[in-house]
Design brief:
Elements (H helix, E strand, L loop, with lengths): L2 H6 L3 H8 L4 H17 L4 H10 L3 H12 L4 H11 L3 H8 L9 H4 L5 H10 L5 H36 L1 H6 L3 H10 L6 H19 L3 H30 L1
Helix pairs in contact: 2-10, 3-4, 3-5, 3-10, 3-12, 4-10, 5-6, 9-12, 13-14
């Protein structure tokens, strides 16, 4: 490869930055919603921004604000936040094979969200080992910055925005679910993934309808993962018997 062609290749962090841009369509509207809700719950603008900076977990942040505003004990708030984020225990082993040796990974894992995980899980295996750290850095930092910026915008001007454009307040809560749907839709081409995702969706819907909203996410995720691995075990067992 010539020197000119080498210089023409984008830097890994710029590639990660560019490829994470579509995530902003889901991050910014939901972050604006969180900023607005935090202000309405009695938090200051800086408190809302600090929550998004340090906690950085959409569902957990909404739960945190609601429980604190309702006067729930701190230990219960912490337990419920950890329970919702327990799905990251599943994320880590799936990304571990593609993480090169670097002292920066523990810090960058703060930027691991559902959407960043889905993007990284498909892109990291396609990248040379030398580019993975840079790519993940660019993608994770863009997502994190957009979440913090959206929170600040919602805290400062969210009320005015929804007053001027009422439809905006109705649409914003659906931005993140729509982004999730776009990320998982290609997986439905596989029978194994279809069964796992279908079971997770059905269980989450069933629990939500019955008023168990907070438990719906971790339990549905656990059941979906169990179904995924049971189907793999069944396929492997059949293959061994056929031999």
């Amino acid at each position: 490869m010539s020197q000119q062609a080498t210089h023409a290749l984008p830097r890994p962090w710029l590639a990660g930055l560019r490829e994470a841009i579509p995530l902003l369509g889901g991050y910014v509207p939901v972050a604006i919603s969180f900023g607005l809700i935090a202000i309405q719950a009695g938090f200051s603008t800086w408190e809302a921004v600090i929550i998004s900076t340090l906690v950085y977990a959409g569902a957990s942040q909404f739960l945190f604000v609601g429980m604190v505003a309702a006067g729930a004990p701190l230990w219960l708030v912490v337990v419920m936040t950890l329970l919702i984020n327990a799905r990251h225990v599943v994320y880590a082993p799936n990304l571990a094979p593609w993480l090169t040796t670097s002292r920066w990974w523990p810090w960058l894992m703060h930027g691991l969200t559902d959407q960043v995980f889905a993007l990284a899980h498909s892109r990291l295996p396609q990248l040379p080992a030398s580019q993975r750290l840079g790519w993940f850095t660019g993608a994770a930092l863009l997502a994190w910055a957009s979440w913090i910026g959206g929170t600040a915008l919602g805290a400062v001007a969210g009320d005015e925005l929804t007053t001027r454009w009422p439809l905006l307040g109705e649409v914003m809560p659906f931005a993140l679910p729509a982004l999730f749907l776009v990320l998982v839709a290609p997986r439905f081409t596989s029978r194994r993934w279809s069964l796992a995702l279908g079971s997770a969706i059905a269980i989450a819907a069933l629990l939500t309808v019955n008023g168990l909203t907070n438990a719906a996410i971790p339990l549905a995720a656990a059941c979906g993962a169990l179904c995924f691995y049971l189907v793999k075990f069944d396929v492997t067992t059949r293959g061994e018997r056929d031999e």
